[in-house]
Amino acid sequence: MHWFFSHKLQKIELEAFHDDATNIEKYLEENTINLALIHFMMAYVEPEIIISKASKILTSGGLCSIATSTLGSFKNLQILANIGNLINKFYGFSKISTDDNVKIPKNEKKLESLLEKYGFAIIAQEICEEKVKFTDLYHVHNWGVNSGWLTQILAPITKVQLDKANFFLKYFFPLEDTFKSAIILAQKQ
């Protein structure tokens, strides 16, 4: 018999809230939970804000699990975006990306310092690196939007903008790059 069926099923009480993560204090009181998962949301929410809020709602000894990419990712794509922005400026097009859209931490050291600032001790940490190869700008756009890793930057780009950018940037492909993510488990002191 499968282990799932050999155990008595238990009912658990679950409350779900659909709101911006920065509004968590509207739903949870301070020092009331023992696990906070901050997975792949730092692209959309300032890391310091979400870590400070996690610190408030976690009990002493509570765990905070973080999984996020860092600005150490895609160094070659960052260079390509800067070249594209220069071309766009020359021709009067809008920017490919803006720093305002990018909230992910600079690197894992920045995450460590934020966690320590808000009363966490790091229990475990792993840095993951994956090599990626893009055949053209359309491949970058498709992968970035559909994987979710670059959605906040690439989703607003129209097909016309993509075609214009590809006309100038196609000579840089194929392009190899590295994706970096940090996975950290920290405990509130």
UniProtKB/TrEMBL annotation:
It comes from Okeania hirsuta. It comes from the Bacteria. InterPro entries: SAM-dependent_MTases_sf. This is Uncharacterized protein. Gene3D superfamilies: Vaccinia Virus protein VP39.
